[in-house]
Amino acid sequence: FNIGRRRMRVAETAVALAALASGVALAAPMGQDGNPMFGLQHVVGGIAIALVGYVVFTKILSPSKTEPPEEEEPKGNFIKVDAGDIRGYKRGTMQEIDVPGEKQKILVTRLLEGNVFATGAKCTHSAVRLVTGVVSEDRVVCPAHAASFCVRDGSVTDAPAFDGLHTFDLDIVDEHIIVYVPSPMPEFKKARACSCNSNAAPSTIVVVGAGAAGLSAVETLREEKFDGRIILIGKEKHLPYDRVKISKSLKASVESMTLRKKEFFDDAKIELMLDTTVTKLNASAKNLVTDKGETISYDKVLLCTGGTAEVPWMTGIPGYNQDGIHILRVPEDSKKVDEKITAIGSDKIRVVIIGSSFIGMEAAAYFKQTSKIEDVTVVGKEEVAFERVLGKDIGQALMNMHSEKGVKFEMNAGVVSFDGKDGHVTSIKLDNGKVLPADLVVSRAFRVFMSLS
Question: Which of 25, 32, 96, 211 is deepest in the core (most CB within 10 A)?
C-alpha cells in the first residue's frame, strides 16, 4: 500500500477512535429502557477492549505491514524533493525530476497498479535518460539497448546493464509525491552485492569466457551467496569489457570500456586467468587443460566463449590480406584502424564498410563524424540495412537516417575482390559489377565458436 505515512497515521487514529467507541458500547450493560448504562467501570472496560482492537489492527493486520522497507522514515541527511501532484502522473508513465543542488536527476514512475516509485534517472549501461524509454509492468526499459530495471528495488532485469539503479524513499503528502534523496546524492550506478564470506572451497565452478556473459555469471554466483571457488578464464588479456563500444568510438580506451576493476574480483574472491585459452575439456573426469599446460579440476563448468574473429569471412577472396583491410572485434582492432587513419595523412579518406548490421552501421556513424573521412559507403547483402534482425521497415527507416548524414549504400551486393597497389587496398569490386574506391576497408568479423576436444 503506497499511500504514504501521513495517511496511514490518520487511518490508524480513526481506527483507534472507532475501537474506543465500540469497546465502551460493548462493555456497557443495557438498561430496562433498551439504552446502554454507562459507568466508570464500563468506560475502563471499553478502553481495554479498544486497546486490544487497536493493537490487533496496527501491529498484526495493519496494511502498513505490507509496505516495502523504503516507506520507513529515512535517517541521515536528505533532500526533500517535491515531485509534483500524484494526479499529474498517469498510470504507466514516468517523469524526470530535478534535485536542488545536485547535477543528477531522479526518475519517478507510476505503475499501472497505481503505486509510485523513485529511482535513478539514467541507464547504468549507456547513461541514456530512462524517461525517454518505456514502462513495462514494474520495469523501466532503456531505449538505447533495451536494458531494463525493476523500479521496486532498482535491480537489473535485462542485459546489457550490469549495475542497478538507486531507489529512494518517498511519501504522499497532500496528494504530492515527496521523495527523500540522500545528500550528497550517490553515483547513478548501484553495484551488485557480490561478496564471498568464506575462504573454504567446498566446490569449484569454472567459467570459460571472460566477456559480458562470463562476468554476469560469476557476479550472479556471488550475489546468490555461492561461497565456493570461482575461476574465470578469458582468452584476451583485458579485464571483462563492454565490447559493443568498440564500433561506437574507435578512440575509446580499454579502460573506459572495462566493466569491473581488478579490485572487484579481489574483493569477491574470483580468480582471474586472462590471456589463457582452454584447449581441452574432459567432462567425465571433470577437468580442463589450458594452452599453458595447466590442468584445472572443477565441480561444474560453464562455457561462455562467444565468438572469435581469427578467421575473417573474406578469407579466400583475392586481395583480402592487403594493408588497409581491417576487422572490428577487439580493442586492438579499433586502435589499428585509428592509427591507419592517422597514417594515411589525407583529409579525404574513402572508407568502405562491409556489413550492414549493428557493427557496420555504428562504424559508419562514427566515420561520418570524423573530419578526415570524406566518403563512407556501406556494402550489404540484404535489401536494406538491419533487415535480418529488425525487419525491412525499421531497416529502411534507419538507412534513411544514415543517408541523410551522407552515408552511401550498396545493398544486395557481395565482394568479388580487393584490388590494390604496392600492397595497399585501393578499391573493392562487387558482384554487381561496381568498383568502389577505398583507402580503408572495415569489416564485421566471421564468428567461429570455440572448439573443445
Answer: 211
How do residues 282-315 score in pLDDT, each as one tens digit?
999 999 999 999 999 999 999 998 766 555 567 7
* Spatial distance between the Cα atoms of 33 and 235, rounded to a whole number of angstroms: 94
Q: What's the start-to-end Cα distance of the chain, in Å?
A: 57
Q: Are 231 and 278 in contact (CB under 8 A)?
A: no
- Residue 208's Cβ-side half-sphere holds a number of Cα atoms within 13 Å equal to 24
Helix residue spans in 224-370 (DSSP H): 254-257, 262-267, 331-344, 358-368
Residues 174-187 have pLDDT tens digits of: 999 999 999 888 87
* DSSP bridge partners of 421: 424
- How far apart CA 302 and CA 209 sit, in angstroms, is 9
Task: Specify the pairing of strand 307-308 against strand 448-449.
Answer: antiparallel
Please state the pTM of the whole predicted model.
Answer: 0.69
- List C-alpha distances in Å: 44 to 41, 97, 375: 5, 52, 92
| Residue 257, CA distances (Å) to 41, 157, 254, 273, 280 in order | 77, 21, 5, 19, 30
Q: Which residue has the cell 576497408?
A: 441
Q: How many residues does the chain have?
A: 453
Sign of CA dihedral 240, 243, 245, 247: positive
* d(C-alpha 147, C-alpha 125), whole Å: 8
Distance CA 254, CA 239 (A): 9
What DSSP designation does 58 have? Answer: I
The Cα–Cα gap between 447 and 437 comes to 27
For the record, the C-alpha cell of 58 comes out as: 496496527
Are 149 and 52 contacting, i.e. CB atoms less than 8 angstroms apart?
no
Whose CA is closest to 343, among 357, 331, 326?
326
Cα–Cα distances (Å) from 56 to 9, 17, 194, 270, 365, in that order, read: 15, 14, 40, 49, 65
Q: In this structure, are residues 448 and 311 in contact, taking their beta carbons and an 8 Å threshold?
A: yes
* Nine cell digits for residue 238: 583485458
Q: Give CA–CA dist 403/405, Å, rounded.
A: 5
Chain-centroid distance, C-alpha 17 = 50
Instruction: Provide the pLDDT for residue 108.
Output: 96
Dihedral sign for Cα 203, 206, 210, 211, please. negative
All cell numbers assigned to 17: 477512535
> 414: part of which helix (H) or strand (E)?
none
